[in-house]
Design brief:
By secondary structure, this protein is an all-alpha fold. Helices cover 74% and strands 0% of the residues. It contains 16 helices and no strands. Helix 11 packs antiparallel against helix 15. The longest helix has 33 residues.
Length: 434
Amino acid sequence: MVTSPPASRRPSWAGRNYTLLTTAAIITNLGGHGALIAAAFAVLDAGGDGGDVGLVAAARTLPLVLFLLIGGAVADRLPRHHVMVAANTLNCVSQAAFAAVVLAGDPQLWQMMLLTALGGTGQAFFGPASEGMLLSSVTGEQAGRAFALYRMAMQGAGLGGAALGGLMVAVIGPGWVLAVDAAAFAAAGALRAFLDVGHIPQRAPGGGLLADLRDGWREVVGRPWLWSIVAQFSVVVAVVGAAESVFGPLVAEDELGGAGPWGLALGAFGAGTVGGALLMMRWKPRRLLFAGTLCVFPLAAPSAALAVPLPVAGLAAVMFVSGVAIEVFGVSWMTAMHQEIPEEKLSRVSAYDWFGSVAMVPLATALAGPAEQAFGRSASLWGCAALVVVVTAAVLLVPDVRNLTRRTQAVVAAEGPGAGAAPVDAVASEKPSA
């Protein structure tokens, strides 16, 4: 009697690489979100103040900005999983050293800044390699669902990691939480070492790192939908980051009752991101970037809610909606990148995308205080909301943003920059929507 083999529990689009990448991302997000809390409390426990916490945070951001583009070029030159494992190793060692100096007692500010900077350097090389690897790990019309599930797993792990990390900091102290994060990087790096890159075509030797960076730049500027949205998000991420990292805690302290209500609002945003990812597992908008860009407008709402300010329940509701909206954009954006960018250039293009998103954050957060003094807190927050609306409306004037459509055929290297929107008949099988 012949019996059929048992059916796989995972969907056909969730292959080995995708499963390894998702599992590793869950592990690092569980550890990483707790470690962010632990790093802040390690500084405070050592006698530092809010300014010192900001210096340690800036020490992580600066190398991220400096090395992102180089990291993208390296990830397109070398096997991406090797770059990811090397970056995870650096993160593991730096977090283990951070844990050691905290557990030993009396950590110095310069030590914490240096070790945090090493972590940011690792992230600069890891991010573009990881995104390129993920985008190349799925194919066909289920790519959007795969990206939605991946993002849902990451966001859920981030929520759980932040909650668990806060509890662990209170119970066992920040040093041990940093040690747990180091172990998480070690475990995730071990998983990523088993990624299979046999499906990725051998890359021809290039003309050097600078030539690779120029080639990546040509890919970006040759696609209006790409450079316009990268420029848009350089503003959006900066002003939203300033509103939530600088003004949000101040409003919560002065108007809403302290850190507890602000934590509830941030938790609602995290829950919204999970809900948005769930939505995108079922919804496949035909005009990817049009639908995604419309969902950037709600990102102005938290700044407006803080400017009023709304009561805690209203603020939490606004944050939840903005969390849903950013996931709709995020999945749409990843799907567009997946179908339009040649595989061998994914990491370089992703690096320019990341660079655009983080480059203006330090400037915006640095200017938040002077803006409050010059214009007042409420006016500054209304200004943040207005900037989000204005730059998002401007992006909708770009024809490719409005018209780029979902398709199932993978882009080929020969298409080059300026491939533009897919023809309507390429998406005939998709359900018409926004």
